[in-house]
């Protein structure tokens, strides 16, 4: 057992001791220990060894206000040396109860043997300092839940050993039209469509918020319907194939 509390000058505290040693782990300067076997003036690091130490123990702080810590136990107490390290070569499996967590503030460099793997189920948010980089050589297959998105702030260079062949889609027919506004060009399975504002128009025509002045045109790669608005006296022309 042990006690650990702050004592003022000449303040006394009592506790029941069961053991064979009493070790002063911390005190401001000196403390007075009173037991049924005698009285002792001890400083930090001092130890009483007595097989019949048990009973009421009184502690009095003889110095300035400060923390007093006393450890009592069986056998002999060997305090750890300052800066002493413990090297763990092997540990048995550790099981955590439900909802238990382990917080790791710092880790040394870890080397994995050939064939060893580390599986990370989840990670907290990671912040990088200015200029820091994080390189990922390979990634496992990634699955996104419905509605999840990945945003990219800039262009990313992609290298691949695969060869892709892109064939241009051609059409054996085409269709044209000229209609008064407003007009919706019907949806159609097409390769592309050119929408033009005739030169004779007196005002602009609009594809949503996109504006075409008289004589201007735009080429779209879309199979859906194209809604065009403008003055009722103006027209829209289109060529699709």
UniProtKB/TrEMBL annotation:
Organism: Vibrio nigripulchritudo
Name of the protein in question: Uncharacterized protein
Lineage: Bacteria, Pseudomonadati, Pseudomonadota, Gammaproteobacteria, Vibrionales
């Amino acid at each position: 057992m042990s006690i650990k509390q702050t004592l003022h000058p000449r303040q006394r505290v009592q506790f029941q001791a069961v053991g064979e040693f009493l070790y002063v782990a911390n005190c401001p300067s000196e403390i007075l220990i009173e037991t049924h076997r005698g009285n002792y003036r001890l400083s930090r690091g001092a130890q009483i060894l007595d097989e019949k130490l048990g009973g009421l123990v009184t502690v009095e702080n003889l110095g300035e206000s400060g923390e007093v810590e006393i450890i009592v136990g069986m056998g002999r107490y060997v305090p750890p040396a300052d800066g002493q390290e413990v090297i763990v070569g092997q540990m048995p499996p550790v099981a955590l109860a439900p909802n238990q967590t382990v917080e790791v503030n710092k880790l040394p460099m870890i080397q994995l043997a050939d064939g060893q793997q580390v599986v990370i189920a989840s990670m907290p948010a990671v912040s990088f300092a200015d200029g820091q980089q994080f390189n990922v050589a390979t990634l496992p297959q990634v699955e996104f839940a419905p509605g999840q998105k990945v945003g990219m702030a800039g262009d990313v260079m992609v290298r691949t050993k695969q060869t892709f062949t892109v064939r241009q889609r051609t059409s054996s027919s085409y269709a044209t039209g000229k209609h008064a506004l407003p007009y919706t060009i019907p949806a159609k399975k097409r390769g592309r469509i050119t929408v033009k504002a005739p030169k004779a128009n007196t005002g602009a025509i609009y594809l949503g918020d996109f504006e075409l002045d008289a004589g201007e045109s735009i080429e779209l790669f879309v199979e859906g319907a194209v809604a065009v608005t403008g003055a009722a006296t103006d027209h829209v022309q289109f060529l699709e194939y």
